[in-house]
Amino acid sequence: MKVEDAIVEQIRQQAVRLSTSEDLDVLVEAIGDKKYVLLGEATHGTSEFYKLRMELSRKLIETKGFSFIAVEGDWPSCYEINRYVKQYKDAKPSSREVLETFNRWPTWMWANEEVGELMEWLNQHNADKPMAERVGFYGLDVYSLWESLEEIERYLQEKGTPEQLALARKAFECFDSYEKEGQNYGVSAAFYDESCKDEVVKLLQTLHAKRVRYEEDSEAALSVELNALVAVNAEDYYRTMVRHDADSWNVRDRHMVEALRRLADHHGPDAKIIVWEHNTHVGDARATDMLADGMVNVGQLVREAHGEADVFAIGFGTYRGTVIAATSWGAPMATMQVPPAQPGSWEELMHRAGAHDQILLLSKEDPILGHEVLGHRAIGVVYRPAHERGNYVPSLMARRYDAFVHVDESHALHPLTIKKVLV
């Protein structure tokens, strides 16, 4: 029997058909008592990925007491979601107003109806709980350099010491001449030695050393510290980006893991954590060609830090459908066709095993899926279906994930119309 045929037959025998939310219980059972659950997505613009992750997150929160959701999003905007779902007294009054803060391209990743639905559920879930038991929502990404600096200065004007405020303004002034354009800063820092690194490192150090808790918002000081961490690592990211893509990728994913660590520390030793990110961040980099390029990712680093026995990573993919994406960075979003997966790819083999949605539990000891390299589709915010062949990541699927959710025909998510879009 050919290897492809053997894989198809194995999927056919072991996969669980996914028809209702109750079918996700097989994943809840497999997760058991693990503290870190990493939920992927093959695109940033597929409705089913958001809805399935929401439903699975709901089950984990309700039945296993998970503490918060951390996502591939900016800290400042995601913190507005956190304030809304935890019902802080000065939070924005509606989920719509909160999502309008996601006004920087690509807006659709978080400013969409699916995330609004999650926000409303979290808000209701938290309604009758003490503040310490309310489930949070946080962003882990590194792109919000200027927004984070603005949040730091605003906070320190009210709560900080004169020394802290002076350091914040010095850092802000250093970056201010680059017109909120990371690439401009990166070129100046990498090639002309015009770096703001010392300023942001000093700011982070003083904020961490003198963190204060306030009863009206016990997370306010944590938030300003995380914004400072963003500033430090964003400076590093943009400086390395213009020289080496692999280095900047590693800066970004290490930042996300460090932000996750600080959030876990804040929530205490019993914290249980759900992460939403793209498959390229969630699936262990060591099981892909990223390893040969010297790249790491969140999935690998979390497994290394906490042990594979305490981490459960789930990949998500689709055979065909529609997706929200853009043809180039900063271009208008559009609904695009996702063509049928390439013959012999992971998604095509899943489809061949059954043209329906399904769940497959994986084991790295699997004699085939733990050793056979297969193409696995990855679609980013920039997508050109005509160049589809370049979107497949060579992967050892059973080593990359602990489980996989296959959506046979997927649909574009439902973005909100945001008045102001900054590129």
TrEMBL record:
Q: What is this protein called?
A: Erythromycin esterase family protein
Which Gene3D superfamilies would you find in this protein's record?
EreA-like (biosynthetic domain), EreA-like, domain 2
Question: SUPFAM superfamilies annotated for this entry?
Answer: EreA/ChaN-like
Q: Which CDD domains match?
A: Ere-like
Question: InterPro entries this protein is in?
Answer: Emycin_Estase (IPR007815), Hydrolase/PRTase-associated (IPR052036), UCP036794_erythomycin (IPR014622)
